[in-house]
Amino acid sequence: MSLLTWLVSMVSSILQLALNIMAALGLQVAQDIAAAALDFYVRGKTIKQTMQARPLLKLLQGSEKSFPGGKQYISVPVQGQFMSDTQGFMIGVSNDDQLQFAQAANIIRPQVPWKQVHSGFIITFTECLQDGVSISDRGTESEHAETELTRLTAILENRLEDFGESWARSINLMLWRDGSQDAKALPGVKSILIDNPLAGVTEGLDRGTYAWWRHRVNLALAVSPAEQKLTKFLRNEVIQLKRYGGRNWQILCGSRFWDGIMQEATEKGLYTQTGFANGVDIGIETLKLKGIGEFEYDPTLDDLGESSRAYVLSTPHMTLRPIEGEANKTLKPERPYNYLVLLKSMTWAGGLIADQLNCHAIYGLQ
User: Which domains does the chain have, with CATH numbers?
Assistant: First the structure.
């Protein structure tokens, strides 16, 4: 027997042995298959494909920055006052006038506590039996057909699609809400951008004390296609949003706000410059606020009863901060001795924090 023939034979034997072990579908093998499937699903492209029309989630996850554990709070340094704000910082002097010196002590640290969330799913042995998969609790004895691997994969595929969509829906909704629905939940955008920016404490800083720690709000805007009231207001807001160095904005709005800005945009616009010969486009695919960015419809605002609102977010100044290694962390718990089930779950730990507020805004229609 040649060396090549021997090597081929050995490889074939090893592969066959591996298939036989997998075909046994012992409990540990089944758990490993489920765990590997969840890991692959979370880290691959599949879970992202289920995130349909969730622009906030996509936006925040796209710019998230991890931080090391071992801390109780997520904290960032900010400065809104300077030595020049102190009366007498710069004064005229002559002869032997006494000089004055200012002490810099204007850096403060807003902070938010990090939170941990968990979601999991279960596959019972009964479900497996109904699909022709028998799971042994006796190690890896070879007593099952290899087709059971395919059947188990099909069960997992269905469960993971459901789990991925449910995870995306839940964390997206959590990132919009203010955290009041659950004291242990992650507070989202509405915990930072509140309806009354003049009062209250955000990230430990009192808005009444620090006038620069406020975002822009106008919830009484009117739509007027003839007079362009909404459009004119938004154009005038550009300079205020850019005044303190905000950048890379995204405008997320509900359906009623989108309709309002669409009405004003189309009232004074032209659909075509070539007449009707080639057809007329009666829709607008993209709406932009020059100097800020695109309007994007976010269905979650409709779900929250805020279809008439738009949130303007400066993405560098509002950041999702997971603990290192704790974003979408998959867990592999052992089967409880008193239940015939496979358990798989995922956790996320961290928080959402802003380091500047005067570059964000909430706008709403009457």
Answer: 21-75+110-271+283-365 (3.90.1690)
